[in-house]
Amino acid sequence: MLVGYMRVSTDGDRQVLDLQRDALLAAGVDERHLFEDRVSGSRDDRSGLGKALAFVRPGDCLVVWKLDRLGRSLPHLLTTVTNLKERGVAFRSLTEQMDTTTPQGELLFHIFGALAQFERALIQERVQAGLAAARRRGRRGGRPMAIDPEKLSAVIAALEGGASKAAVCRTFGIRRSTLIDSLVRIGWSAGLKTTGEADGASAATERNPAHGPVRAAHGRA
After folding, report:
1. Distance (Å, whole) CA 152 – CA 154
2. CATH H-level, domain 2-101: superfamily
3. 128 φ, ψ to 5°?
4. Half-sphere exposure of residue 50, counting CA atoms within 13 Å on the CB side?
5. Is 9 a known active-site residue?
6. Which long-range contacts (CB under 8 A, 24 or more apart) does 127-135 make?
7. Most C-beta atoms within 10 A of its C-beta, which of 60, 163, 175, 193?
8. Where are the domains of the chain?
């Protein structure tokens, strides 16, 4: 069975949602088996995706219009697709022509995995360089880092993948002030903006109670 997942960032993206629906229906997805979210891809609480992942069974195929509709980051995408494969569920992205049931799709998936590993190595290298600089400053009266290097690498990977600071603090069990202090001390400024930041609570991405499945019933035929 083909199961479709769609995502748009706001309620105003009706045309984009219709474009995704038309593409999924043309690919053979039954309209009863479509799930949707109307939230930013960086949000963790995507109920439509959760319902789609709970709905699929071994032998099914989860279909999306584009890869960025599913994953909020490359590591998140790879984790999601890997979990599907372990459950016996295939994955297909129409725009990128990625299909894990084909040799070409498998190759592309492994290439993405290698890129994610390379990205993690670069992040770790930057963290180590930042920590070394912080230690040099520490010898002149600074204090020890509050987050260990391994956790800090994972934190930065999550932030660069689009996760909000609030979500990172919840996931890793750290205080926001500790997070900001650690990022400043290693010289990582990409996610330190404060003006206009909503950390996942902007009105543009506010959840609508009706969001989730396109249809109330997603019965399996």
Report:
1. 5
2. Resolvase, N-terminal catalytic domain (3.40.50.1390)
3. -60, -40
4. 7
5. yes
6. 127/152, 127/153, 127/156, 127/186, 129/186, 130/185, 130/186, 130/187, 130/188, 131/186, 133/186, 133/187, 134/185, 134/186
7. 163
8. 2-101, 121-191
DSSP H or E run through 38 = strand 34-38
State the CB neighbour count (10 A cutoff) for residue 153: 19
Q: Judge residue 85's burial from the number of C-beta atoms within 10 Å of its C-beta, 0-12 exposed, 13-18 middle, 19 or more buried.
A: middle
* Model pLDDT for residues 164-196, shown as the tens digit of each residue: 788 788 877 888 888 888 888 777 765 554 333
Q: How much is the pTM?
A: 0.56
- Return the structure tokens found at 78: 């790879």
Q: How does strand 90-93 pair with strand 98-99?
A: antiparallel
**Chain centroid, CA 189 distance in Å:** 21
Catalytic-labelled residue, pool 9, 40, 42, 93: 9
Nearest of 186, 183, 187 to residue 168 by alpha carbon: 183
